[in-house]
Amino acid sequence: MEVIIVKDNQEAGTVAANIIAERIKQNPKIVLGLATGSTPITTYQTLVKKCQEDNLDFSRITTFNLDEYKGLLPTHEQSYRYFMNQNLFDHININKAQTFIPSGIDLQDPEQYDNSIESAGGIDLQLLGLGVNGHVGFNEPGTSFDSKTAVVDLAQSTISSNSRFFSTKEEVPTQAVSMGLASIMNAKEILLIATGSNKAEAVYHLVKGKVTEQWPCSILQKHSNTTIIIDKKAASLLE
Ligand code: F6R
């Protein structure tokens, strides 16, 4: 696991976007795995700039997002489809038909999502954030390392943390559809970003902790091509 320590989230976004842009140039038909949340927003802003100012070409790429809230329509302002359109897809020359996000509504056969990823040739580069409790995607502590895409229960701490985006507590989804840990580990390369002191404990378990399902992120120690970009605050327990 390569660890890159940066000053803050802004710099993390620049470093991550530079890596992603490099990979797109090397392989214009790359399959990217994408994350939502606060952390990757600066990465997406930098990618938008690279497209608009430097003609970085997204026209032939395919993307698969990690997760979606159960019950939210793509048009809901808190859905992850809406987030991706607002923060990235609406501002770059991507073919939206080639952007995939698990459906939060049609929950018949969530594992079909893994088949779609496989049919696209697998994920070349997976971007990840990190939950305070060590979740990746919405794979909460206790999730099997063998998990594939599934409907999952969100931990109470995740529900509380997400409540900042909803006007009432009752509206905050308690379940999501998420790629599993095995789905994520199948990616050929992984790029995880974590910034802020509230991520320091999870970063410790990600880099130095025992590999245990109690800290889902710890499975990434077993991945042969993972880079993590963390700021000084998130790195504070690594010394
Ligand atoms: C988002 C996702 C989550 C977030 C994590 C961190 O698609 O799968 O694992 O990456 O909850 O969220 P932020 O970046 O808001 O701290």
UniProtKB/TrEMBL annotation:
<dbReference type="GO" id="GO:0042802">
    <property type="term" value="F:identical protein binding"/>
</dbReference>
<dbReference type="InterPro" id="IPR006148">
    <property type="entry name" value="Glc/Gal-6P_isomerase"/>
</dbReference>
<dbReference type="InterPro" id="IPR004547">
    <property type="entry name" value="Glucosamine6P_isomerase"/>
</dbReference>
<feature type="domain" description="Glucosamine/galactosamine-6-phosphate isomerase">
    <location>
        <begin position="12"/>
        <end position="227"/>
    </location>
</feature>
<dbReference type="GO" id="GO:0005737">
    <property type="term" value="C:cytoplasm"/>
</dbReference>
<comment type="similarity">
    <text>Belongs to the glucosamine/galactosamine-6-phosphate isomerase family. NagB subfamily.</text>
</comment>
<feature type="active site" description="Proton acceptor; for enolization step">
    <location>
        <position position="67"/>
    </location>
</feature>
<dbReference type="GO" id="GO:0006043">
    <property type="term" value="P:glucosamine catabolic process"/>
</dbReference>
<keyword id="KW-0378">Hydrolase</keyword>
<dbReference type="GO" id="GO:0004342">
    <property type="term" value="F:glucosamine-6-phosphate deaminase activity"/>
</dbReference>
<dbReference type="GO" id="GO:0005975">
    <property type="term" value="P:carbohydrate metabolic process"/>
</dbReference>
<comment type="pathway">
    <text>Amino-sugar metabolism; N-acetylneuraminate degradation; D-fructose 6-phosphate from N-acetylneuraminate: step 5/5.</text>
</comment>
<feature type="active site" description="For ring-opening step">
    <location>
        <position position="140"/>
    </location>
</feature>
<feature type="active site" description="For ring-opening step">
    <location>
        <position position="133"/>
    </location>
</feature>
<dbReference type="Pfam" id="PF01182">
    <property type="entry name" value="Glucosamine_iso"/>
</dbReference>
<feature type="active site" description="Proton acceptor; for ring-opening step">
    <location>
        <position position="135"/>
    </location>
</feature>
<dbReference type="InterPro" id="IPR018321">
    <property type="entry name" value="Glucosamine6P_isomerase_CS"/>
</dbReference>
<comment type="function">
    <text>Catalyzes the reversible isomerization-deamination of glucosamine 6-phosphate (GlcN6P) to form fructose 6-phosphate (Fru6P) and ammonium ion.</text>
</comment>
<protein>
    <recommendedName>
        <fullName>Glucosamine-6-phosphate deaminase</fullName>
        <ecNumber>3.5.99.6</ecNumber>
    </recommendedName>
</protein>
<dbReference type="GO" id="GO:0019262">
    <property type="term" value="P:N-acetylneuraminate catabolic process"/>
</dbReference>
<dbReference type="InterPro" id="IPR037171">
    <property type="entry name" value="NagB/RpiA_transferase-like"/>
</dbReference>
<keyword id="KW-0119">Carbohydrate metabolism</keyword>
<dbReference type="GO" id="GO:0006046">
    <property type="term" value="P:N-acetylglucosamine catabolic process"/>
</dbReference>
